[in-house]
Amino acid sequence: MEVKLAQRVNLIKPSPTLAITAKAKAMKAEGIDVVGFGAGEPDFDTPENIKEAAIKAIKEGFTKYTPVPGIDELKEAIIEKAEKEQGLKYDKSEVIVSCGAKHSLYNIAMALFEEGDEVIIPAPYWVTYPDQTVLSGAKPVFIYTKEENEFKVLPEELEEAITEKTKALILNYPSNPTGATYTKEELEALAEVILKKNPNMWVISDEVYEKILYDGRTHVSIATVSPEMKERTLLVNAVSKTYSMTGWRIGWVCGNKEVVAAMSKLQSQSTSNPTSIAQKAAVEALKGPQDKVYEMVKAFNERRDYIVERLNSIEGVSCFKPHGSFYVFPNFSGVYGKSYNGKVIEGSMDFAAYLLDEFKVAIVPGVAFGDDNCARLSYATSMENIKKGLDRIEEAINKLK
Ligand SMILES: Cc1ncc(COP(=O)(O)O)c(C=O)c1O
């Protein structure tokens, strides 16, 4: 039988970050000693109190359909968190829980974007934003941020990108892949441009790495800048990264109630509610003890310091010191043009292939994130692995001619 798939499937690519992790896992399964820097999730276990809450939910028979946009108890925990941490007040009608932040973002794209719309995505970007935008029929418009500006969007760059067709800006801070985040003043400057240039555009504020911050930084949401900004911000968050709960699939959006209602309508005809058991676990994550989060961030901080120093000590490599998240995004373009076995490294794909094939190190080529000069290394792996991997990267670079 001839398989004729819908055209929309050809518009998008499978997630390249998941693909590299899968390849590294397959090599490991064959017994090859691969050092993986591809992980997009913390290497810590979900805290015990959270697991216990899920087990309790199962034992008590909390195993049926729930309201489509999530249980009141979880919405209340989300509302309480937003108010306590950011001073943001939301009503339950302004909150929807979905199956992970990726699903939240997908629902937003489906509820808001359509053909003729432009969606501004600062690059380097998380790989999913352009594909979800394209799937919706809208056009991604990239702002190529610069390493010397700490990979942040400048107000003048934003001003230039906004048109009357702009439907939204997708802002992710702390960022995957660069680890950059914005100060309150920087967010205020961006907000000023938005309100001046296109008062009808939305800001989709992806804050899933908000707790993974270093050097005494605290997270500020762009929704806190002014009541006008709160009105047009769709705040996306999840328990995935903060509580090492990537497999539980709980994310949410706080924002305009008409958009939330539209997302809920879409969700009612696709996934229905997020898993009942995971919702109970998420309540415990948000309301229970937070000490495991601090322990995790402390470990990430040590690894970040080590990895940045090692990378910067390699000739031809420069690495921006991330403010948050658990990735570094070093610039390897200094080694492009060099070769091994007569084969020239032309860009991040060649470099990643060279590292994986010849030195058994998995990194994610920067081209996947819209920046071919760089590559992403996740330090959500043990210090031992990081040291071993960096020794191999250093050796690999020294062997290039
Ligand atoms: C910036 C960013 N947003 C959203 C997500 C998706 O999170 P979730 O696992 O909750 O779907 C990720 C996961 O890698 C991410 O890096």
SS-derived structural category: alpha/beta
Can you say what the CATH homologous superfamily of the largest domain is?
Type I PLP-dependent aspartate aminotransferase-like (Major domain)
Strand content: 5-15%
Summarize the amount of helix as a percent range.
Answer: 40-55%
Order of helices and strands: HHEHHEHEHEHEHEHEEHHHEEEHEEEH
Strand order of the largest sheet: 2-8-7-6-5-3-4
Describe the structure in brief.
It is built from 14 helices and 14 strands. With 401 residues, it is an alpha/beta fold. The strands form 4 sheets. It has a 7-stranded mixed beta sheet, with helices on both faces. Strands 9-14-13 form a 3-stranded antiparallel beta sheet. The protein has a two-stranded parallel ribbon with strand order 1-12.
Task: Explain what the structure shows.
This protein has 14 helices and 14 strands. Strands 2-8-7-6-5-3-4 form a 7-stranded mixed β-sheet, sandwiched between helices. The chain has a 3-stranded antiparallel β-sheet with strand order 9-14-13. Strands 1-12 form a two-stranded parallel sheet. Helix 6 links the parallel strand 3 (118-123) and strand 4. The protein folds into 2 domains: 7-45 and 292-399, Aspartate Aminotransferase, domain 1; 49-287, Type I PLP-dependent aspartate aminotransferase-like (Major domain) (Aspartate Aminotransferase, domain 2). The chain has 401 residues and is an alpha/beta fold. The site of pyridoxal-5'-phosphate (PLP) has 13 residues, from helix 5.
